[in-house]
């Protein structure tokens, strides 16, 4: 399991903290820790977080350090606890830059990281209300507008509030796998969104931003055995509807046919096998294509 340390300050935005924490906890792949300059901290909504561990001398290798935003960041980041946290970040700057730790900033959490010099030379973003302040306080940072989240060499930053949930889902996809991220998103009933210039989501996630349960069931069946030679009639029977109705629902909610969706899953499997060092013929057969020629034709269809 990977360790995640939440840096909790007074007036931390509650959803900046609990949103990503819920995502990571539901994935079952992360250990959550809460650290800060004070043992207790009142959040933006008046709830107090207790049993906060002191700022440690070090964190385990491959840890994620997550900095949530704070309410009224213009004043709160000048408070004594925030200054202590900033000094601690500066003292541990090399752990982030050497990628011993990964840094995750939600909303105005990027301001604290920027002040500590952790974003210098890195692409990053933050809440639209504080973008200009981030540019002023971290002039060497490469601040990007209109981004949900940005990843750059082990440093992750996001826009405000719910964008922290989007970023946390991306972290599950990156450090666990896309299907686990999909399962967490469905449990939380949230959509997947991209982070501007970040790579496209895999087909395991890309077409899951809808709420139709029967379509999700059909997608689950296909995703469980993408290499199988599924017939539309058999798939429709398993979700208790006609082939025609299932086809219509796929078009309505995904914007493509059942066959096209299945083919994208098979392409993803083939790509995984190729990355694992399989030859193209074996990769094609493992993904359910009849030959490498059929695989190449599918690749051309989707890459042209």
TrEMBL record:
| Transcription regulation among keywords | yes
Q: Could you tell me which residue ranges the HTH araC/xylS-type domain spans?
A: 216-304
* UniProt keyword terms in alphabetical order: Transcription, Transcription regulation
- InterPro entries given for it? Class_I_gatase-like (IPR029062), DJ-1/PfpI (IPR002818), Homeodomain-like_sf (IPR009057), HTH_AraC (IPR018060), INH-QAR (IPR052158)
User: What is a single Pfam family found in this protein's UniProt entry?
Assistant: HTH_18
CDD domains under this entry? Answer: GATase1_AraC_1
Q: Which molecular function GO terms apply here?
A: DNA-binding transcription factor activity; sequence-specific DNA binding
The answer to whether UniProt assigns keyword Transcription regulation to this entry is yes
SMART domains listed in its UniProt record = HTH_ARAC
PANTHER family xrefs:
ARAC-FAMILY TRANSCRIPTIONAL REGULATOR (PTHR43130), HTH-TYPE TRANSCRIPTIONAL REGULATOR RV1931C (PTHR43130:SF3)
What name does this protein carry? AraC family transcriptional regulator with amidase-like domain
The organism encoding this protein is: Sodalis ligni
């Amino acid at each position: 399991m990977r360790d995640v340390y939440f840096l909790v300050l007074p007036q931390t935005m509650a959803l900046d903290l609990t949103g990503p924490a819920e995502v990571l906890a539901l994935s079952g792949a992360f250990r959550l820790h809460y650290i800060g300059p004070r043992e207790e901290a009142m959040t933006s909504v008046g709830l107090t977080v207790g049993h906060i561990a002191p700022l440690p001398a070090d964190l385990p290798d491959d840890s994620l350090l997550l900095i949530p935003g704070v309410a009224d960041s213009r004043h709160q980041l000048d408070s004594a606890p925030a200054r202590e946290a900033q000094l601690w970040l500066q003292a541990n700057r090399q752990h982030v830059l050497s990628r011993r730790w990964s840094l995750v900033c939600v909303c105005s959490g990027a301001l604290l990281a920027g002040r500590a010099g952790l974003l210098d030379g890195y692409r990053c973003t933050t809440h639209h209300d504080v973008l200009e302040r981030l540019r002023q306080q971290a002039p060497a940072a490469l601040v990007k507008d209109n981004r949900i989240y940005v990843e750059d060499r082990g440093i992750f930053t996001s826009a405000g509030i719910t964008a922290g949930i989007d970023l946390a889902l991306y972290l599950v996809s990156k450090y666990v796998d896309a299907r686990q991220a999909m399962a967490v998103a469905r449990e939380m009933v949230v959509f997947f969104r991209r982070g501007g210039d970040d790579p496209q989501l895999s087909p395991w996630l890309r077409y899951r931003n809808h709420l139709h349960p029967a379509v999700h069931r059909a997608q689950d069946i296909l995703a469980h055995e993408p290499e199988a030679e599924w017939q539309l009639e058999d798939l429709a029977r398993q979700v208790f509807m006609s082939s025609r109705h299932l086809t219509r629902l796929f078009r309505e909610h995904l914007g493509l046919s059942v066959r096209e969706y299945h083919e994208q899953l098979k392409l993803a499997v083939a790509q995984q096998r190729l990355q694992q060092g399989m030859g193209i013929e074996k990769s094609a057969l493992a993904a359910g294509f009849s030959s490498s020629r059929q695989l190449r034709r599918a690749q051309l269809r989707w890459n042209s």
